[in-house]
Amino acid sequence: MKLLFEKSVQGRRCAILPTCDVPETALPERFARQAAPKLPELSETDISRHYTALCGQVHGVNSGFYPLGSCTMKYNPRIDEEMAALPGFADIHPLSPAHAAAGCREVLGTAKQYLCQIAGMDDMTFQPAAGAHGEFTGVLLIKQYHDSRGDKGRTKIIVPDSAHGTNPATAAMCGYEVVNIASAPDGCVDLDALRGALGADTAGLMLTNPNTVGLFDENILEITRLVHEAGGLCYYDGANLNAVMGVVRPGDMGFDCIHMNLHKTFATPHGGGGPGAGAVGCKAFLRDFLPRSALMEGGNGIQVRSFGGNFLVVVRALTYLLTLGREGIPEAAQNAVLNANYLMSQIKGSFAPAYDRVCMHEFVLDLSAFKKEAGVSALDVAKALIDYGMHPPTMYFPLIVHEALMLEPTETEDKETLDGAAAVFRTLYEQGHSDPAALQTAPHHTPIGRPDEVQAARHPVVRWEAT
Amino acid sequence: MGSYVPSTAPEQQEMLRALGMENVRELYRDVPESMYLNGPLNIPAGKSELEVRRAVTAMAAKNKVYHTILRGAGAYDHYIPSIVKYIPAKEEFLTAYTPYQSEISQGLLQSIFEYQTMICELTGMDVSNASVYDGATAAAEAAALCRDRKRRVTLVSAATHPDVIAAIRTYCYGTGDEMRLVPVKDGVTNFDMLKEMLTAEVASFYVQQPNFYGLLEDADTLGAAVHQAGALYIMGCHPIALAIMKTPRDCGADVAVGEGQPLGLPLGYGGPYLGFMAAAEKLMRRLPGRIVSETMDNEGRRAFVLSLQAREQHIRREKAGSNSCSNEALCALTASVYMAAMGPEGMAEAARQSMAKAHYLAKGLCALPGVSLRYGGDFFHEFLVDMPRTEEVLSALEKKNILGGLPFEGGVLWCATEKVSREALDEAIATVKEVLTR
């Protein structure tokens, strides 16, 4: 499809601003731009049609099944969007005087209260703009805690090898050496490996529970006890909170701080890769280390972004929390887990689960045997699913499972959708054996076929230029 | 209660039976009994959509929506064209995940590619990423990418937004690096002090243009000194001002960042906003975050993909330069639609009118007894004045539904944009006059 720039016609424009009604002020020449930016010149019709056409080449949660593991692609309610667009929220300056933003503070206070209940934490910040940003904030709480006690010898953060890449990257951003510990054969934390890694240099542990293979670690109390015994703190990566919200609380598992992805668990839209919100909760003893805005709140400690965070995302999450309430929260978790187990049971006769036991909200298929038999990879199967109107599962993650496909159906899918998806998986399993080439060249019904990613990495073309 | 679970109770029972289970507790068999919640959470019962609408609307009604906003300080009340609100609300853009699966994400990927191109045009830089969280994180990430083994210190002009300073300092605290503030003289970066502070351990210098006081920095001169000392030069820019101001590239910047909120994003009590980030080509592989590249598909058709992923955390893990695994895609889309709707001339007009209105307001205020500009330099659309009886002035303005300037360092920091009419400015000036001549 043509780019906006290729549709541009010199002199075409939208009439947005009136003529200036005050005397002009000249920008001194030494500050002035030499040539105007080559932005497109378009009519409103051009713009509307351009983006409507682009929209037709995007698969959203509204378009069809989106079982993208670890991303919790649940339905995003429309009322949440309407509430966030209310002028009483959208038009409020972050530096409004306190009385003029009482409603915003009520939103933040109420959301904090409910989310602390769900997390089993005592306090919370909404400043972090995303999950990884929340991890950064949470590990900085741990760092400040040790620093405040003059405990300078704690230089290491322990991370299981099944963790999201953001965990080790976060630890490194916080100046920690990362100790990766191997998972046990059942996909959970290997207690001996953990004991071996713990010591006087342990600052903390970063853990997801349920973990990235979709299993709840039944040793969780022992894990957090061991870390605390060594003088470290426990960070809960809330990536998989959707499986357990209202059922079991990270605070009760022994965690000291947590981030929650409002854009996953609390149904705010992913927006094609953001904006999200990574609310960070903590136990009372870490409260003083939470970030605050220098300008808005007179903070003089840490601050991870400007002002108070992605407020309008919090409005959406609060709308969702109010809707579900105390019964709806665990109901959502239970149905996310039920749907995942049901889908796994219906696929199981064809592709093999990596861990054949009750799972939480997601499960991982291991296609290595299938690849050996049929010569068809997890990537091929993922691409073939697209032709059936499904978004592919997460591929090749976690790293401890080879040829992994990770499926997370979420609670907002019905039984017919799950049955339909399982039937597609069974069809592809058979087709992989009878006609592997069809899968190896999939997808066949999309605007483009498989792109040349090697070329893009070697010779990146990252902007349009007039020819 | 409200719920988005489509399965009926009989359907749930049917699925449980298919699993050979009696009840949901069996699904959670790995959860120890000691921590399994047997009672409800201590939060209210769920509500219907209509009840929720009433409750949330009532909260919004407790906020005050001003008719006129004369306050900026990092969040700017520029006019948002209608089309800019409608496009990002389209459900596919709204609800999709990061476009890893390019075959069903061409629309998103192309929109990011267009955004990257627009940011390059605006800044004059070679390469832009797909955006980061906001202007403050863009500044902090820029400072991080400029550091190498030998050069670890980041210099920041003290005339920078306090939140940006705090964010850079926080990121430095994380990695154990040092940030040093370059003092201000007459409201702008103290050039002599900067030269003195540019030692061999300095990795980069960050300046905000226009700076936090609204003043225009002598950006080329600063940049030349930075380069002479072998450090990298980061400029934090106001994106609408860039439509008429000398580009960061022409000022010698190696990295250009900024708060993208003025590009069609609502004030929203502080977010979500948009951090734009662009660099010279030599730094391309050090940029954090997502980058979209054009390539071809297996039939030779134009295609767009997320590229240069070897830099990122899901591949590099602890060796990645940043832990970032998202951007502000929907905000970047909003900014693209804004720039397309305004066009080069509309953007420049918004910049010129913002500047003209701020000067009109400054002139009107400074004609009043006891009011004067604190600093004499050229300014864009913000300015700091010294004035008596600030509290009374602001509360008188409030009664007229006007949000006055921000009390800061003993003065008041005012801002005007193209959105404010002359009539509204005259009303604000008359209101201030009434208080000061009382």
Looking at CATH, which topology of the largest domain in chain B would you report? Answer: Aspartate Aminotransferase, domain 2
Give the full name of the CATH homologous superfamily of the domain at 78-322 in chain A: Type I PLP-dependent aspartate aminotransferase-like (Major domain)
Strand order of the largest sheet of chain A: 1-7-6-5-4-2-3
Poorly predicted regions of chain B = none
Structural class of chain B: alpha/beta
Widest beta sheet: strand line-up of chain B:
2-10-9-8-7-3-4
Strand content of chain A: 5-15%
- The value of Rg of chain A in angstroms is 25 Å
Question: Helix count of chain B?
Answer: 13
Just give the CATH class of the domain at 78-322 in chain A.
Answer: Alpha Beta
Structural account:
The complex is a heterodimer of chains A (467) and B (438). Chain A has 467 residues and is of the alpha/beta class. Chain A is 39% helix and 10% strand. The relative contact order of chain A is 0.13. Chain B is of the alpha/beta class. In chain B, helix 6 (135-146) crosses helix 7 (162-175). The model of chain B has no long low-confidence stretch (mean pLDDT 96). Chain B starts with 8 loop residues before the first helix and ends with a helix. Chain B has 3 domains: 9-58, no CATH class; 68-79 and 346-436, Aspartate Aminotransferase, domain 1; 82-336, Type I PLP-dependent aspartate aminotransferase-like (Major domain) (Aspartate Aminotransferase, domain 2, 3-Layer(aba) Sandwich). Chains A and B meet through helix 2, helix 3, helix 4, helix 5 and helix 6 of A and helix 1, helix 2, helix 3, helix 4 and helix 5 of B.
